[in-house]
Design brief:
mainly alpha, 126 residues, 74% helix
């Protein structure tokens, strides 16, 4: 019975997300798939700071969308990616981290902007 309930919840969660995002997120559940997906996404690779591979940039993030959003915030607001990554992979929300580095901007709006850019990147890949 618990297996059926878990399966139904998983199916509902997948229905509530966009198909491309759900496909990449599901494929990114394991570390190996996340790194492969990061390396294969040319839009994401273009955002990765010099000296890092896409795999290294995304290591530690739960999914490719979170990594992509962090890369966009770094580029959009000129915040060092390493500093963003440290705080995000420690559990802070994107808006909280943005506020810590750029208190004068609308951090919620900037987080939403970066998350949309990330979804667009992932949709373009699929």
């Amino acid at each position: 019975m618990k297996d059926i309930a878990c399966s139904l919840l998983l199916a509902l969660a997948l229905l509530l997300t966009s198909p491309a995002y759900a496909q990449v997120t599901a494929a990114s559940m394991t570390t190996g798939h996340l790194h492969t997906a990061a390396a294969d996404n040319t839009r994401l690779a273009a955002l990765v700071p010099a000296g890092l591979s896409p795999e290294d940039a995304c290591r530690g993030f739960g999914d490719l969308g979170a990594c992509s959003a962090a890369l966009h915030v770094s580029q959009n607001l000129n915040i060092p990616f390493a500093d963003l990554k440290d705080r995000l992979t420690a559990g802070q929300s994107l808006a909280t981290v943005i506020h810590a580095f750029k208190p004068g901007v609308d951090s919620r709006r900037e987080a939403q902007r970066a998350e949309k850019q990330a979804r667009d990147d992932l949709a373009a890949q699929g």
